[in-house]
């Protein structure tokens, strides 16, 4: 298992993960979105042998002490193997390196396994965004302080 910064040649594999896991009600990222983020934001991928198993995309703002996890995804065949945990650990290292103070995210209120992982990794629930997703599902807002 190797985690590294994503590059343009990784975008096709990232789009395959999006298409496998997300629908129009989940704010799925497109090729153009990934192309933009490979140039502008921290985007890390997890490689297992020659396969892209997952990714984490972080959004940063210069004047903010917070970093946002915009998206994290692990291909179905690699789920429950610790990849999400490793991607989160990579984001923690990035936050610490930048000197920022908080990592934040939103997660579908019905994504119980993700919420459990985030809580295990030290995230705290700080609120709810009602009807956040296009299908009307609420989002749980979570933060981890550093």
Q: What structural class do helix, strand and pairing data support?
A: alpha+beta
Largest sheet: 7 strands, mixed
**CATH architectural arrangement:** 3-Layer(aba) Sandwich
Helix content: 25-40%
Average pLDDT, to the nearest integer?
94
Report the total helices.
4
The SSE string, one letter per element, is EHHEEEHEHEE
Number of DSSP-assigned strands: 7
Radius of gyration: 14 Å
What is the CATH third-level topology name? Answer: Aminopeptidase
Write the layout of secondary structure elements.
Layout: E1 2-5, H1 11-21, H2 31-40, E2 43-48, E3 51-60, E4 66-74, H3 83-98, E5 102-108, H4 112-120, E6 124-129, E7 139-145
Parallel strand pairs: 4-5
Antiparallel strand pairs: 1-2, 2-3, 3-4, 5-7, 6-7
Structural features, described:
The protein is an alpha+beta fold. Helices cover 32% and strands 34% of the residues. The protein contains four helices and seven strands. The protein has a seven-stranded mixed sheet with strand order 1-2-3-4-5-7-6, sandwiched between helices. The longest helix is centred in the middle third of the chain and has 16 residues, at 83-98. The protein starts with a strand and ends with a strand.
List keywords for this structure.
146 residues; alpha+beta; Aminopeptidase; seven-stranded mixed beta sheet
């Amino acid at each position: 298992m190797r985690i590294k910064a994503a590059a343009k040649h990784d975008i096709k594999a990232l789009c395959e993960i999006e298409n496998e896991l997300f629908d129009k009600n989940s704010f799925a990222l497109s090729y153009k979105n990934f192309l933009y983020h490979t140039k502008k934001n921290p985007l890390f991928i997890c490689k297992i042998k020659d396969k892209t198993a997952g990714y984490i995309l972080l959004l940063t703002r210069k004047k903010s002490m917070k970093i946002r996890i915009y998206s994290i995804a692990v291909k179905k065949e690699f789920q429950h193997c610790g990849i999400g945990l490793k991607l989160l650990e990579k984001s923690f290292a990035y936050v610490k390196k930048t000197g920022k103070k908080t990592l934040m995210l939103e997660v579908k209120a019905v994504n119980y396994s993700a919420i459990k992982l985030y809580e295990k990794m030290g995230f705290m629930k700080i609120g709810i965004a009602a009807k956040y997703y296009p299908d009307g599902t609420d989002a749980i807002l979570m933060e981890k302080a550093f």
